[in-house]
Amino acid sequence: MRHIFFSFLIAATHFNISWAATPNWETFCIKASKTEFPGADRPSAEQAKALAECASVDLYFGIGRPADPALARQCAYVEMGNGDELIWGGSSILIMAYANGRGATRNLDLAIRLACENDLAPGGGQAYRIEHLARLREENWEGNDFSICDDTTSGYWEGNCAWLDARIADAKRETELKRLTGDWNETERKAFAILRTDFERFVESRASHEVDASGTARAMLAHQEETSLRDGFLSLVEVAEHNTVPVFSAAQLAEADRELNRTYRQIQSDSEFSYGTVTRDGIKKTQRLWLKYRDAWVAFGRHKYPAVSPDLWKVWLNRERTKMLSDYLAFSLQG
Predict the structure, then answer these.
(1) Is it the case that residue 87 has pLDDT exceeding 90?
(2) Of 264, 289, 292, which Cα lies nearest the Cα of 205?
């Protein structure tokens, strides 16, 4: 976990050297301020009324529904008219729409104007973003993957970008889960819903109590951990549905139990345990919820996959949990 944060710092340092902001960005803003908004890009009064409750970020990235960049652009104008106070909405989406030519004719001058007029949030990397867009304009760039996250310079914004990545990943994951469970009967779906409830309680506790929240990148790290856990959950469902669960022996089950218990006890018995904001009590709370989640998987497996021994699920999940806990011990040894 902590190595992710160090990697972020290294990448951010390299990024700032490569894209050192200069006073030129203010010149770009002066020139771009004369760029007009295309009247045809704004929604009509009737369209704006229909979009009163819209979310341009969902429309632009296809979260919870198919992506519709053109409708996202209209929605973003509505959000701008309502005060442009959304971190992910309004001018944020329009910057990307005009830079990428997605949902609007590419207009990097207008993207620069929008970036100049909205700093998005303190420490949001405004100067770097403006110079980045100016470079793309000079290069006659024709790509479509510019993101306002390309130029963030703060842990706060890294957290917001990680939140968006997580939402996009969640939407894709839900689509895949629906495909995998589409032919399940009602009883099986209800049993799966109970399992997911216990899983999400564990995920929430893991992100809240077992991720170091002492740095400015805490939100990013928490979102990344949640995404990793949910990806692992999907992988386990895929393994079960494709009948590719590995076969473990009784000896391997016993060893997995011993190793998990040994690792957990070692942490709880260490009165000097230290891992940022992570505490032994927080790990204890999360462990209880994890045990409930593991037992829920075993119960669900007995119902949905009766041919699979419950011991196989236990070995799989015990090993995953042991790896999570072992990371704390590895860090303590390094210290």
Answers:
(1) no
(2) 289
β-pair partners for 203:
none
Which among 147, 182, 165 is positioned nearest to 63, based on CA atoms?
165
What confidence category does residue 333 fall into, taking pLDDT thresholds of 50, 70 and 90? low
| Rounded distance between C-alpha atoms, residue 147 and residue 71, angstroms | 18
3-state helix, strand, coil in the chain (%, to 5): 70, 0, 30
User: Facing residues of 275 across strands?
Assistant: 278
36 three-state secondary structure:
coil
pLDDT (average), residues 249-267: 94
How would residue 123 be classed by pLDDT, with cut points 50, 70 and 90? low
Count other C-beta atoms under 10 Å from residue 15's C-beta: 16
pLDDT tens figures, 175-227 = 999 999 999 999 999 999 999 999 999 999 999 999 999 877 788 889 899 99
- In the chain, what is the straight-line distance between the N-terminal and C-terminal CA atoms, in Å? 15
For the chain, what are the domain ranges?
2-151, 155-334
Residue pointed to by tokens 């030129």: 24
Position of tokens 């304009």?
137
Residue 239 and residue 297: Cα distance in Å, rounded? 13
Cβ neighbourhood burial of 65 (10 Å; 0-12, 13-18, 19+):
exposed
Hey, what are 12's tokens?
A: 């951010």
- Among 58, 46, 109, 66, which Cα is nearest to 86's? 58
The whole-model pTM stands at 0.75
Confidence of residue 133 (pLDDT cuts 50, 70, 90): very high
> CB atoms < 10 A from the CB of 292, how many?
15
State both tokens at 199.
């899983």
pLDDT at 219: 84
Give every CB contact of residue 126 below 8 A, 6+ residues apart in sequence: 25, 115, 116, 119, 120
Residue 284, CA distances (Å) to 60, 202, 260, 290, 293 in order: 41, 12, 13, 10, 14
Question: Within 10 A of 231 (CB to CB), how many other CB atoms are there?
Answer: 13
